[in-house]
Amino acid sequence: MQLAMIGLGRMGGNMVQRLVQGGRGGGGHELIVYDSSVATVKAHVGKGVKAAKDLADVARQLAPLRVVWLMLPAGAPVESTIDQLVPHLTRGDIIIDGGNSNFRDSLRRAEALKKQGIEFMDVGTSGGIWGLTLGYCLMIGASPAAFQHCEPIFRTLAPAEGYARVGPPGAGHYVKMVHNGIEYGLLQAYAEGYEVLHASRDFKLQLGQIAKLWNHGSVVRSWLNELAERAFSRDDELAAIRGYVEDSGEGRWTVEEAMRLDVPAPVITMSLLARLRSRQEESFGAKVIAALRHEFGGHAVQSK
Fold first, then answer.
1. DSSP state of 205
2. Alpha-carbon distance 172 to 140, whole Å?
3. Are the C-beta atoms of residues 250 and 100 closer than 8 Å to each other?
4. How far apart are CA 124 and CA 179, in angstroms?
5. Is the bond leading into 65 cis (omega within 30 degrees of zero)?
6. How far apart are CA 87 and CA 59, in angstroms?
7. In Å, how far from its chain's centre is CA 140?
8. Active-site residue, from 119, 176, 229, 250
9. CB of 211 within 8 A of CB of 197?
10. Could you say which of 30, 79, 151, 183 is catalytic?
C-alpha cells in the first residue's frame, strides 16, 4: 500500500522502517517521506522509500486515494502542516495524525476537513523506540470506511490484537490521553517504591536484583519493571541521570478531563505534580514550610 510519512523522528522514522520491512501484517508498503531536516530524509531513502522535497511534492507522488500520516509534535506543527497540505489534496484523501495531539484539536480538525471532503483519523500510538521490533499499540479514531482502507497499514505496524478502531475521529487521541495518564501513575508508583528501597538504612539493597526478582511471578511484574531492570543493570545508582522529568501534555489533559467529568483521579494528579516538582532545583514552597515550622514550633532549619 502507498502512503506518506511526514515527520521522521524517533517514532516516525522507526515506523517507516517497520512498514517497509514488514511486521506481523507483512510489508509491501511504498513510502513517500518528508521531514524539515533534509539529512534525515536522505537517511531514510532507499528500497521502498522515496523522498519528497516539500508538502506539495508529497501529494504529487501519491496516487489517489492519498494517505498521509503525520508524526509531529502536538499543536502548531500539526496545524501548520495540515493547512499547507490540504490545498494539494482531493476529496476522499486521508490525513492521519499519529502524534499526541489534544483530542479536542482532533475533533475540530476532523470537522473542518470533513467539510472539504477529506477524511481525518487520529491514531494514538504507543510503543516508543521498541515499536520497531515489537510493534505499536494503535488507538484509532476514524470513520469505518477510512479505518477499513488503512487497515493494512495498522496490521503491519501493530502486534497481534494491537490495533483497534475505538470510535469516531477524536476517540483515538482521547483513549491515548487516558493511556498516558495511567502511565504517569504507574511510573510514579515504581519510582516511589524503588526510592524507598534505595533509601533504606537497614539494608544495602541491589535494585537491579530486586527488579529482576519482581519480574518473575510477582503481581507487580510488568514491561515497565522489565525496563527498570534494564536501567539498573547498567547503573544500580542511576548516578549519571538527573531527576528531571518532562511531561508531553497528556497527563495534564487527563487531569483536566477528570475534573470536567467530576471523576476523582488522585494518583494521576499527584504523579503530574511530582513531575513539576522534579524540575525545581530547590522548592521555594518547601522553604516556606520550613520557615513556618521554625516560626510556630521553633523547629530547626537547615542553612545553605
1. -
2. 4
3. yes
4. 9
5. yes
6. 10
7. 14
8. 176
9. no
10. 183
The grid coordinates of residue 215 equal 519480574
- Rounded to whole angstroms, the Cα distance separating 174 from 117 reads 23
Separation of alpha carbons 51 and 42, rounded Å: 7
Q: Cell numbers for 110, please give them.
A: 476532523
| Residue 304 a catalytic site member | no
How many Å apart are CA 62 and CA 24, to the nearest integer?
25
| Cell 539494608, residue located | 203
| 229 included as an active-site residue | no
- For residue range 3-45, list pLDDT tens digits in order: 999 999 989 999 999 999 886 666 679 999 999 999 999 998 9
Can you tell me the mean pLDDT for 155-173?
97
**Contact present, 140 and 121 (Cβ < 8 Å):** yes
Q: How far is CA 77 from CA 2, 57, 86, 127, 251, in A?
A: 24, 18, 14, 22, 20
To the question of pTM greater than 0.90 for the whole model, the response is yes
| 2 grid coordinates | 502507498
